[in-house]
Amino acid sequence: MRDIPYRFNLAQYFLDHNLDAGRGGKTALYYRDEQWSYRRIHEESCAMAGFLDELGVRREERVLIALPDRPEFAPTFFAILRMGAVVAMVNPLLPGDDHAYYLDYTRARVLVTDEATLARIRPVLGAAGHLRAVVVVGGRGEETEAGVRLVPYTRGLTLGRTIEGVDTTRDDIAIWLFTSGSTGKPRAAVHMHHDFAFNTERYALGVLGLGENDRTLSVSRLYFGYATGTNLMFPFRAGASSVLFSEKPTPDILFDHIERYRPTLLTSVPTMINAMLNNPRAKTADLSSLRICLSAGEALPPELYRRWMKRFGVEILDGIGSAEMFHIYITNYPGDVKEGSLGRLVPGYEARIVDPEGKPLPPGEIGTLHIKGDSAALCYWNDHEKSKRTFAGDWCFTGDQCRMDKEGYFWYEGRADDMLKVGGIWVSPLEIENRMREHEAVRDVCVVGYEDDAGLVKARAWVVLRAGRTGDDALAEELIGWCKASMAAYKAPRSIRFVEDLPRNDRGKVARKIIRQWS
């Protein structure tokens, strides 16, 4: 990788270089019947940067994006970076009270959203003391609500005031990436311009081999760093193209978009991989345009990988990343997938597995994963204590329980607070879940701990059955026996509960915190 110069701005790195390379007229974004060229996105981002400046945004101030996956997301994103302000992104489908939290936490000067999202946010605008203006994609006219100026996105395009760029450095703050909030309110991992280029060069270009002939499609939404990388930053850096859709992801929408746009890379999650395989269209769907499918966010069960390969023959590169490190730092490689594993380190990153005292463990033993690399966040905003527990010098303490084998492949065992201590021995819920998914009656499952009558921790499996199967005592006993047949008896669940579905957060992960409350 070439050195990142001290004077550096991500808008030029990801977007503007495409004009220098002669790709100004190339389609960068596909959205429904629209095709947005690199030149158009560049021009709109310069115009929007001027508009944000006119609205009072200054360097290092936050601008909050609450947009669905539509083309205006890209020029807005790069406009904020271009002018030296800081990007913060939030799920537009959240209820108004959640938006109030993000507006207060970020102290955003400007919010960029669409009309549908604005309808949910309007009641809380009066409480957003730092907010000066809301830029509305699809807005028809200017108005004022609770003392906040509401202006249409198109106003910025006609203002005639543009900003090509400011003299930022690689160490200026660029983007806040929010954690999933699984143990409390989401917190922002504060990242510099440099962080995103480091991972892009090593993972997107080095491991995935993205090039200008690629076309990307994502299940995860752009507000989530996983997709901001794979469906915006990475393809733009490679001079490739992205496919966007603003509807809620479903198997039918995915099959439709793969058929229409013929992407080469699909960003997905295990839940959607499973849903696509269970969809009737899986029998005839043509996924031959794909050269890679990515999976992250939660462990990919080996049984699911085998089913996908048997039907579609497209490698799934499972990996692990985080808001704290921006993106994937351990992954399976094209042509080198070790089924059930997270794969190997992305070049430029280091890892160690440690015991509770922080001492490195030998291969094969389960411990806490520590990761090191130049994409690590500076801190969590406004949370000094949590920052100290997570960031220690060059190392990031992930809280993920993993083991590494002798060949250097990593295996995910769960989060530290998900592990179960049964009979004094640590048990990984994922090991039980993977075994249960191999049973022909099980569509999905989550294993959590509960206390029995003696106050001892045991494993309980919450099971979603396949169509046509009925949950009863006989099937519960069968599933417990199924587990005992291939693992130590103490690991098998002592209790089975059947449910219609499992709760998930807005990133698609199973909400174990909610399920533990069921127990």
What would you note in describing this structure?
This protein folds into three domains: 36-178, Rossmann fold; 192-377 and 396-415, Rossmann fold (3-Layer(aba) Sandwich), CATH 3.40.50.12780; 419-518, 2-Layer Sandwich (GMP Synthetase, Chain A, domain 3). Helices cover 30% and strands 26% of the residues. The chain contains 15 helices and 28 strands. The strands form five sheets. The protein has a nine-stranded mixed beta sheet with strand order 2-1-12-11-13-14-15-16-17, with helices on both faces. α10 (270-278) links the parallel β13 and β14 (292-295). The longest helix is centred in the N-terminal third of the chain and has 17 residues, at 38-54. The protein is globular.
Q: Main attributes?
A:
519 residues, alpha/beta, Rossmann fold, GMP Synthetase, Chain A, domain 3, 3 domains, nine-stranded mixed sheet, 15 helices, globular
Helical coverage, percent range: 25-40%
Oligomerization status of the protein chains: single chain
The CATH H-level superfamily of the largest domain is ANL, N-terminal domain
Domains (count): 3
| Content-based structural category | alpha/beta
In CATH's first tier, which class of the largest domain applies?
Answer: Alpha Beta
- Counting DSSP E segments of at least 2 residues, the number of strands comes to 28
CATH architecture of the largest domain: 3-Layer(aba) Sandwich
Overall shape: it is: globular
Radius of gyration: 23 Å
- Portion in beta strands: 25-35%
For this structure, the CATH topology of the largest domain is: Rossmann fold
Return residue spans where pLDDT drops below 50 for at least 5 consecutive residues: none
Question: What's the mean pLDDT score?
Answer: 94
Discrete helix count? 15
